[in-house]
Amino acid sequence: MVFSSLAFLYAFLPAVLAACYLCPRRWRNAVLLLFSLLFYGWGEPKFILLMVASFTAAYAFGFPIAKNRVEKPAAARRWLILSLSVSLSALLFFKYYDFGAETLSRLPFWNLPILGLRLPVGISFYTFQIMSYSIDLYRGDAELQRNYAAFGTYVALFPQLIAGPIVRYREIDRQLRDRTVAAADFAAGAERFCAGLAKKVLLGDPLAGAWTYFRDALTLSPSALGAWLSVVFYSLHLYFDFSGYSDMAIGLGRMFGFHFPENFRYPYTAESIADFWRRWHITLSAWFREYVYIPLGGNRRGKWKQFRNLAVVWVLTGLWHGADWNFLLWGVYYLVLLSAERFLLRERLQKIPAGLRRAGTLLLVFLGFLLFSESDLATVGRTLGYLVGAGCRFADLLDGYRLLVLLPLLAVAAVGCTPLPKRLFDRLTEKRPCFRWLRPALCVLALLLVTACLADRAFSPFEYFQF
Q: pTM of the predicted model, to two decimals?
């Protein structure tokens, strides 16, 4: 089940809201856990057992970790390693076995079977959350969770189960134990959900259609203009698709009394690659920084060890997104860019006007998403050639016509990925109270438009489901 479906909007969501607010408060975690398992198993019920087994194991391992943490730290460390190993085993098997087997089978004397495993939806996200609990508990940053339903709710909570934000356990520990929802919180959550839904369905999906058109056109009549448009439309689609999902997740969480961390802060306005990663998929960057980069030594032990730590993080970041060479190269691409910024160009970049820094950053990010969007490296190479006019014409007549048709969508998307619309709207509603009715009115309008689109559209998937 996805948020952008009529079944979710008009059946599942009203049912879970009614069940949660009509039941006693002490039962709410159990109710949310049951509905979350139903949500997850809607399309793939066989993988429910895998997720339940994963968080049940981590729940059980939490007791010896907490018991031995102070008096027997070595024993606690062994239990932590066991817990992390169990959590990672399913992820490594389902996500990376076929990739590893295919790679090793190219070497002499290796002939591993390819199993054709199907990746359980959201396994990368919920595995990282499970690991966060074990690590936070071992460090003493969180208390032992004795309530099984509460811990299961933390892992399986349907708003952020499939594609994040990745919530570290200590950020939500107290909310699992006791939370209240004021009317203002619920209203703010509903508004955020409607905004995210509109971003995903009204902008993200049409941008995906435009990208598909220009990508397919490159195989029939390649042109430099078509190649650039495919890159631009994919990058815009990915932002509105993923940030829209994050907005919906944060809004839904707030409707149930949870405050999830922000996951996007206008990344396409970043002035550097480092700034971009402080704004894009923030919770993933925070997870790797806290649980990998800093424990390795961070930036405290000289430049070479800084580079080593960055290399480990970005190789893992690339592979986290997918078990294929294009994702590994995507991680290496950012390793090179961030290392160049940090060790070679920091002072020189500060002398460049902010507008030029933003443009250069945007260009590098969009080119990086070419690796992200295509698993076939030969296709990536051809498209890079088309971008500079190698082996193709400058523009195709049909590409020009299609661009004119899509120009309003492109303009709205370009402005929509900046903070300008929100600033103007907030200024209008704050300075002129008579316009405050616009907030609920726009939510209703967005819901009506989305409903009309979904009624006419067979499928509206999320890009990050594949991760």
A: 0.91
